[in-house]
What we know:
320 residues; 2 domains
Amino acid sequence: MHVGTTVIVAVSGGADSLALAAAVAFEAPKLSITAISVTVDHSLQPGSAEVAAKAADQASALGLESRVVTVDVGHDGGPEASARSARYAALGGVAREVSAAAVITGHTLDDQAETVLLGLARGSGAASLQGMAVESELNGTSIVRPLLEVRRTSTRAACAAQHLAPWEDPHNDEARFARVRVRTTVLPMLETELGPGIAEALARTAAQLREDAEAFDEMINETIEDIVEHAEAGISVSAPALAANPAALRHRIIRHVVAAEFHQSLTRSQTLEVARLVTHWSGQGAIDLPGCQARRIGNQLEFTARTAATTDSDETSSAP
């Protein structure tokens, strides 16, 4: 962080965020950094306002300016995803309001291990297995996670040493949440059966995959400059050039093009189906994808936006 900047510290009231708040409150004055604690009240549990107020009070006692933001949590993607979206939207809103350089969160090595295991279970590819980055961007807001190499036991010890009273979220004991099952059952079982150090090993795996992904991204950007060009209502890619690349790079380019141009994510099966237009093309027609269509025209693989008329036509043709 640059001297004189402002940062937002996300403080839920749990041990991780309180330990983070204490560390930031100690270090920020040395760099003339203004640190503002923001507690998001999701209003999902009885007494949430009181919990948020207590978290803000503890942050204030540490010397941070404190705010509480109440949000409405939607239903898209399930309760965890919806709460996360609402939380980051609120944090980003305050960050923009005060021109903060970043939002700092208290994610730990344990959170990273859980994220990697969940990604592995879902089979969602290397992107999920990379876990969380120390620094990333979300909707234009810089997110910094300085505790990703720190265990949860250390944050609890830090709170005890500083006489801070962490809030124990009852949701952390509810087995209906996949992350809770990973935390309370899966990781302990792996530690018992395979020996200690599983969480650290998962975090190392995430770091190594992130390094690989960064190298791939550089290769993709260099390759795309040579083989991608704009087409009417979309974008086109040289099929022979795609075919000349290794499958891993070819698939990443396909996913990257769709994500960058149409802001959609492809599943592995969708990616492989598009790749067959490159490697096993025998005149097959267009492939419908989220937000777009892919088709082979001569030596070009074209991606074009799916219009409302196209979608309605597809639905009509598939109706019984």
